[in-house]
Structure formats: C-alpha cells, structure tokens
Design brief:
Strand content: under 5%
Largest sheet: none
Helix content: over 70%
Order of helices and strands: HHHHHHHH
Number of strands: 0
Number of helices: 8
Radius of gyration: 17 Å
Shape: globular
C-alpha cells in the first residue's frame, strides 16, 4: 500500500519532479480499471488459460493506452523525463492499494503463507519498476515519434506479464522468476531510451 507513495515522495524530494503528472495518473487509472472490470466480467471463464490471456491483453491495452493518451494530450507541456517517471510511479496505485487492503482480511487467518510478506514486497517493488519502465518507453515513443513501435511493445509486454502472473498464480517461484526476467529486460530498454532522448540538462543533473 505504501510502496508507490513513498517512492513518489522520495522522487519528488530528490529531483524536484513535478507532482501534477501523478495526479493525472490517478485520474486516468480509475476509469481504466473500472472499464476493464466491466469488460472482464463478460469473458468466458471456462478456458483458464484463454481467460488469463484475454485478461492480460485487456489490461495491457487499457493501461498502456491510457498512459499514451494522458502523456500525449493531457501532459503535452510536461515533456521532462522526470515527468514520465512521476506518472509511472503513480500509475496503478489503485490496484496495489486494493491488493494491500485485501491482505488485512487475512489477519488471524490460518491460510496465510509463511512467505507472504516477502512475495508481496517483491511484487510491489517489481511492479513499480515494471510500470515506470513501460511508461518511459511510451514517453520515448511520443517524444521521438516512434509510438507506432513503442506502444504496441508496451501493450504486448504488459499483457504477457499479466498472463504469466495469472496462469502461474499458485506457483510463486515461477511468477517471481518470470517477472524478474521481464522487468529486467524492460528496465534495460527503458534505460537505453532514457539515455538516448537527449543529453542531461542542468535541471536533470541530479539523476543518474
């Protein structure tokens, strides 16, 4: 529940990044998740794998599409790489917040796994890094006129990651390993995009 807000505060204090992109992110994510929930309720759940693949693609399109539209049209004057990171840190907070709330319902329960804290902490941190990296990729595409490439890539990676997490839900080791590999790859790609956008300006010298 606290991962994204704490990282956002630290990011703001360390870099002086503007907060407004985070507010836009909050406002965009809520309707995206609501629309996704409504559409998902109509999916055929008889095929376990098919349902997970469709669910991953649905949220890949909605979440990454929402990022693209928000950064291109609502944040067109917020063209700093720091703004992209701020947006990414705030994106999806509603999902992690609700997941955190659900954990409270397990207090005193006998079904709590012994590795629950470690797994959830990993998922929270990995999720933030993954989301920020995809956001930087989309931002790079907007700034460099390559959205026809970066947006579909972001949607596919998001969909694949979600599908893996859903299909192997009860195999934490597989999910952690797969998510770690996916996040590492996306993070490296985002870093290359980050570096290639432009030389560090004075106001961004505190980063990297």
């Amino acid at each position: 529940m606290l991962t994204a807000p704490v990282l956002l505060i630290l990011w703001h204090k360390k870099t002086g990044a503007r907060i407004y992109p985070a507010l836009v992110s909050f406002g965009v994510c809520v309707p995206a998740f609501i629309i996704g929930y409504v559409i998902r309720s109509c999916f055929d759940m008889e095929s376990f794998v098919g349902y997970r693949l469709a669910n991953g693609l649905l949220y890949g399109i909605l979440e990454e599409g929402a990022k693209f539209l928000a950064m291109k049209f609502l944040l067109e004057n917020y063209d700093s790489r720091k703004d992209a990171v701020t947006y990414g840190l705030a994106h999806g907070y509603q999902e992690s917040f609700s997941a955190g709330l659900s954990c409270f319902g397990l207090i005193g329960s006998s079904i709590i796994a012994s590795d629950m804290f470690g797994v959830n902490l990993w998922i929270a941190v990995n999720g933030v890094v993954f989301t920020v990296s995809l956001t930087v990729l989309i931002f790079y595409g907007i700034q460099m006129g390559k959205s026809k490439l970066t947006l579909p890539v972001a949607i596919f990676v998001h969909a694949f990651s979600n599908a893996i997490g859903g299909i192997f839900y009860y195999a934490a080791a597989i999910v952690i390993f797969a998510d770690g590999l996916i996040t590492a790859g996306v993070c490296y790609a985002a870093y290359r995009c980050w570096k290639s956008l432009w030389e560090l300006s004075d106001d961004e010298a505190v980063i990297l």
